[in-house]
Amino acid sequence: MTDGQQAQLALAHLDKLKLYGKAIRVAPSKHIGVQMPKDGQPDAGLTKDYSNSPLHRFKKPGSKNYQNIYAPSLTLHLSNIPANISEEDIKVAFEEKTGGAVQAFKFFA
C-alpha cells in the first residue's frame, strides 16, 4: 500500500501502547521508502520485499482483511483448541508466558 494508510493505522493504534510494562513509541519515518539491496549485494537478512507475496494480507484493496483492522484491545480470541485442553491449561500457559494473570476466560461451543 503506497498511500500510507497502514502507517497511519499503526501510528494511531500503537503509539504509547504498553508492551511488557513499557510504552512503545511509533512515529513517522524521515525516510520516504526502504532501499532494497541490489541483486548480488549482501543485505545481512535485514530487508525482504513481501509486496508480491501471496501471504501479504493487505495486497488486494477492499479485501476482507481491510475490514478486520481494529485498535488493540484486551480481548484475545483463540481458535482450533484441541478438545483435550482444559480452561486451566490455557490459563496456566498464558500466565507462564506473560507473567500476568488471566482476568477472564470463556470457552464458546
What does this protein structure show overall?
The chain is mostly helical. It has helices at 5-14, 64-67, 87-98, and strands at residues 18-19, 22-23. Strands 1-2 form a two-stranded antiparallel ribbon. A hairpin with a 2-residue loop joins strand 1 (18-19) and strand 2 (22-23). The longest helix is centred in the C-terminal third of the chain and has 12 residues, at 87-98. The chain is extended. The mean pLDDT is 78.
Task: Produce a short descriptive summary.
The protein has 109 residues and is mainly α.
Helix fraction, binned, reads 10-25%
What is the makeup of the main sheet?
A: 2 strands, antiparallel
- Overall structural class, as computed from helix and strand content, comes to mainly alpha
Number of strands: 2
Shape: extended
> Beta-sheet strand percentage?
under 5%
Uncertain ranges: none
In whole angstroms, how far apart are the ends?
38 Å
Summarize model confidence as the mean pLDDT.
78
Strand order of the largest sheet: 1-2
Total number of helical segments?
Answer: 3
Descriptive labels:
24% helix; 109 residues; mainly alpha; single chain; two-stranded antiparallel ribbon
Task: Spell out the blueprint of helices and strands.
Layout: H1 5-14, E1 18-19, E2 22-23, H2 64-67, H3 87-98
